[in-house]
Every structure is written in C-alpha cells, then in structure tokens.
Design brief:
The chain has 100 residues and is mostly helical. Helix content is 81%, strand content 0%. It has one domain.
Amino acid sequence: MTTTLMSRSRATAPASPRAAGFLTELPAVIAELAESAERGNRLLLGRLAHQLKESGEMNGYEGLTPFAARLERVAVGNGTAMDIRVALDDLIAECGKMQA
C-alpha cells in the first residue's frame, strides 16, 4: 500500500498498554496465519485475517486494514494458493514494519 498509510499507522498508534499487548501478541497471530495457510484451512485463515484487521483498527494500527482485508478476501473467496501466499507475505511484511 502507500507509504502514507504505513506512516500514519505508526504515527497514530497509541502507546497504551492495550496497543502494546497487540504488538506483543502479533508474532503468535502471524504464526497462526501462516500455519492455517500451510494447512490449506481457508476458513480459519479468513477468520484470523478478519480478527487481525479489527484488532489492528481498535488499537490504532489502521495501516494493517487493507492487507488483512485482502488476505481475508482471497482466503474465503476464489483466491488461488498463490493469491493467498502473496497476500499473507504482504501482511507479514507490514506487520514487520509496525514492529520495527
């Protein structure tokens, strides 16, 4: 996505304990997403992506929204395995930027 979205998500992210908890739990969520994709569990992958999107928004990380929404769409829709892999890789990369 755009640099503006990524910058905005980091700049507006609150320094609250809840937001810190979100970042602390992010590696486990990413691992669960990757495992679901590897197993081909598209419904769980879509549900986890949706939950990550909502949790990110609630904690001030709106920059995740387009990435998580895209993964959710391709997982529960007609996305190919390659579509899912690319969407997941993009989401993981964005999460890495947030943690940096």
